[in-house]
Amino acid sequence: MTDPNTLSPPSLETHVAQRDETFLDANELVINMGPQHPATHGVLRVILRLDGEKVLGLECVIGYLHRGVEKIAESRTYTMFNPYVDRMDYVAAVSNGLGYCETVEKLLSVEAPPRAQCIRVILTELNRIASHQLWLGTHALDIGAITPLFYTFRDREEILKIYEKYCGARLTTHAFRIGGLQYEAYEGFEKEVKNFVNFVKPKIDEYEELLTTNRIWLERTKGVGVISAKDAIALGVTGPVLRASGVKWDLRKAQPYANYKNFDFDIPTGENGDTYDRYIVRMAEFRQSLRIIEQAVDNIPEGPIMAKVPKVMKPPVGEIYHSIEAPKGELGYYIVSDGSTQPYRIRVRPPSLVNLQALDMMCRNQLVADVIAVIGTLDIVLGEVDR
Amino acid sequence: MPDETKSPAPPPPGDPKPGTDQPATPGGVKATPSGSVQSETKSTPEAPATAAPKPAAPAAATPAAEAKPATPPAAAKPAHPAPAKPAGPTPIPWDSPLVAKYKSKYGSGLNAFSFLGQNYLEVDRSLIPNILRLFRDDEQFDYCVDVTAVHYPKRERPFDVVWILYSFERNERLRVRTQIADGESIPSVVPIWATANWLEREVFDMFGIQFEGHPDMKRILLPDGWKGHPLRKDYGIIQQDNEWVQINLGIESGQ
């Protein structure tokens, strides 16, 4: 038997030993998972304490992708920092940009023109679909269903094509500017978005056909990683994970931003707070996003796409917090301005980081194989966890 | 207190700003049951109108004699914005049933402001665990959105610690802020909101602020042996722990 002390860096054992005197109980095994593990969706390291196949507890080690985004912000102007936010949750770059631009707009007391807001909503909801598609493909792949990955990536491609045509970039789009939009919607934008909606609607049914009543899928997800509404709130969990626990809360309805109040859509919720319910909630969110896009694309108002924003932005001294419903949960920006052209401090409230914190609780007394399912169902992006 | 209530009332809501951040919405999660809460949130957006021209805030401060004087944080705050930007909006006193309730309890240890329609409280460090616990238990602020800090190296007490709270019941946000000295610790709110665990660890990692009673106070994003706290203003943008890099990565410098 190898001495576990030689296997892991010193910080680990001291930590585990301090937390629990039963460390290295005859039945207990400490296993390291990641950071280079395909099912951790990036570079997440999880230290598992196991009794046989049962998880007694786990600890996440994060920071492998830390780039100091908040520090970088302090030496950039408000405009210069805008592209950086795309690199946090890189599969939902448009949402990140929306949150950042709206926060600075609030600080400057300007509002994007209606046309810009409408195009923003379309692009952001497309991004929610793209993000959920990526989640579904990888989550199903982790659990053992390989096919959905090909389906979802094939269809996500259509969204990326729209982005590419709109702003030239597919992933880190930098689509929005403080005060509105840089680019007017291209020729045929509405038509392509409508085509996409019609194209993807049956595809979502197709995904559901593969999984929703699939017996293996049910066995792997039902009752796995349960989190109650009370615990979810205490742990600050937001987004689909919170809604799957039965809390009907969505920032687009609770504190509407952009022009979401003009659209008619529902907030899907679950009951059991397990992995299956989170899957069902996200599947329903696909359809709600499509509903919003359909309404928006038919009614894009005419007019300017950029509000009057000074070239050199000097927001008033003060601080502001604004958050949006990103695909993964509440994405907030807390900006402190000292009246100069550079932000004094930008704090990003990342949904992935806070949601990941629930992993320990959700995995306790589950099987080790279910840890993979729970990491997948939390829909984390390590770029956002570590920033 | 009554003077404070009057002062935001008279000016007409003609200023264009107030509409920008209106958190109260009828389409919220749950219908907010208490009418008082709604009226409170509504009173906020009107408030910035008073502040649009700078003089309004001092004018309001003079009649409210007992509220203003003996509060160092309050004195420090307006001193900040005043010289820099006379044109822009400035924080104005915020009045609401919640503020009145806690003001009567804690007196000058607590000051309430509103900036661009967002409300925040500046509280004395000594109130910290208790007042936050009361906010959760009595005022339904059951969701701690974020815990963060800001460094002002030139100030006597250079750190602001900020808690951003949200209440599902009232659909309302509240920021609580306190100032602490360098090297001073602050009680952890993990017993109140479990979510603060990692958030406080990140504040420790980035600013070096210790949270008393935190179950596992150690670095979260940077490696355990790292020296320095990057989000302090005296930590340079390209600065790093060269020793750590040399030992662990086997290179001279990451730059």
Model description:
The complex is a heterodimer of chains A (387) and B (255). A three-stranded antiparallel sheet of chain A has the order 1-2-3. A three-stranded antiparallel sheet of chain A has the order 6-7-8. The longest helix of chain A has 30 residues, at 114-143. Chain A is of the alpha+beta class and 387 residues long. Chain A is globular. Helices cover 48% and strands 12% of the residues of chain A. Chain A is built from 16 helices and eight strands. Chain B is α/β, with parallel strands linked by helices and 255 residues long. Chain B has helices spanning 2-6, 35-51, 56-61, 72-79, 81-84, 97-106, 128-139, 196-207, 242-249; strands at residues 92-93, 110-115, 118-123, 143-151, 159-167, 172-180, 186-187, 211-212. In chain B, the strands form two sheets. In chain B, strands 1-2-3-6-5-4 form a six-stranded mixed sheet. A two-stranded parallel sheet of chain B has the order 7-8. In chain B, helix 8 links the parallel strand 7 (186-187) and strand 8. In chain B, 42% of the residues are buried. The interface between A and B is large, with 54 and 58 residues.
Quick recap:
The complex is a heterodimer of chains A (387) and B (255). By secondary structure, chain A is an alpha+beta fold. Helix content of chain A is 48%, strand content 12%.
What proportion strand of chain B? 15-25%
How far from one another are the termini of chain B?
A: 57 Å
**Secondary-structure element pattern of chain B, one letter each:** HHHHHEHEEHEEEEHEH
Calculate Rg of chain A over CA atoms: 22 Å
Sheet/helix structural class of chain A: alpha+beta
The H/E string of chain A reads HEEEHHHHHEEHHHHHHEEEHHHH
Give keywords.
heterodimer, A: 387 residues, alpha+beta, 3-stranded antiparallel β-sheet, 16 helices, 8 strands, disordered N terminus, B: 255 residues, alpha/beta, two-stranded parallel ribbon, 9 helices, 32% helix, elongated
